[in-house]
Amino acid sequence: MATQKLKSLAYIGTFGISAFITGTYFERKFSPQHNLKNPQDSPIFSTVFAATAVSPVPSETNVGRISQIMKYGFPGLDNVRSFDNFVLSYDKRNRVAHWVFEHITPECCKPNDQVDRALSEFTPDESIHPFFRSLNSDYYKSGYDRGHLAAAGNHRVTQKMVNQTFLLSNMAPQVGVGFNRDSWNRLERYVRRLTRTFKNVYCCTGPLYLPRKEANGKNYVKYEVIGANHVAVPTHFFKVVVCETKDGQFEMESYVMPNQVISDDTPLTSFMVPPETIERAAGLLFFDNIARSKFSKINHKKN
Ligand SMILES: *[C@@H]1O[C@H](CO)[C@@H](O)[C@H](O)[C@H]1NC(C)=O
């Protein structure tokens, strides 16, 4: 039966994103033909600039880098903050970012003796109003990791870049063992490895707070909050990745993982969901500046 298949195939199905999944998705994902083990397969700069509060780098350099990172569109415009090598939109109510955006290149990821993440410290982001800022004390004894949204390993060019990924505005409460330190990390490493094939990899990462059906048959969004600042614990996290091919085509991959212990042998492809599903759930539009017809592949499938 379909229910049976759903249970065995996808974590996602069991954790509530199904509410957002269109018929098309079910068709695609759970049709017998689809084998998971063997997948076939602007004007906004003023806003960004004004929001730049952290790095006193020469503004021209920074604006150039930001326009590169955000070349294919901002997913949303709420409290956008730019750092040396990534851009973030901050959700003041949940005290976690809405999204972070990275442009990942081979140069950003290659080992560099000049930087050491062990020298970085988790630091409250002073550019955020104290009412909305998360603190280390919020995470202390919460049982959750301070999980990077923009991964430290994607920013190895300077120590300052790595340091900026340790700002608490780039953190979200993540289950440690089995998620942040395991399967989520596996996904981050996979995205990093894409730079071996593609010169330009764009990655948008963020939290989701997805509804679940309760015993009375109604859907509720329920999530824990931690610490004195009530930092929201996302139910899921997403990554939408776009790779630019040499001939100017684009390939997109989009993933949703539940913020739970995930078995290490669960293939990453089983977390793929259509980008539209994430857009609806997150209230964001990804890579809006690229016509969807320009994507030669979406989630390994010919578009
Ligand atoms: C990185 O962070 C550490 C720890 O806060 C600090 O000692 C160091 O000076 C920072 N380095 C740079 C280049 O910002």
Automatic annotation (TrEMBL):
Its cofactor is Mg(2+). It is an enzyme of class 3 (hydrolase). The chain crosses the membrane at residues 9-26. The active site is at H148 (proton acceptor). This is Endonuclease. SUPFAM superfamilies: His-Me finger endonucleases (SSF54060). Keywords: Disulfide bond, Endonuclease, Hydrolase, Magnesium, Membrane, Metal-binding, Mitochondrion, Nuclease, Transit peptide, Transmembrane, Transmembrane helix. One of its GO terms (cellular component) is nucleus. Residues 82-293 form the DNA/RNA non-specific endonuclease/pyrophosphatase/phosphodiesterase domain. One of its GO terms (biological process) is apoptotic DNA fragmentation. It comes from the Eukaryota. The keyword Membrane applies. The keyword Metal-binding applies. Pfam families: Endonuclease_NS. Its EC number is 3.1.30.-. Mg(2+) binds at N180. InterPro entries: DNA/RNA_endonuclease_AS, DNA/RNA_non-sp_Endonuclease_sf, Endo_G_ENPP1-like_dom, ENPP1-3/EXOG-like_nuc-like, His-Me_finger_sf, Non-specific_endonuclease. Belongs to the DNA/RNA non-specific endonuclease family. Residues 83-293 form the ENPP1-3/EXOG-like endonuclease/phosphodiesterase domain. It is found in: Mitochondrion. One of its GO terms (molecular function) is single-stranded DNA endodeoxyribonuclease activity. Its main location: mitochondrion.
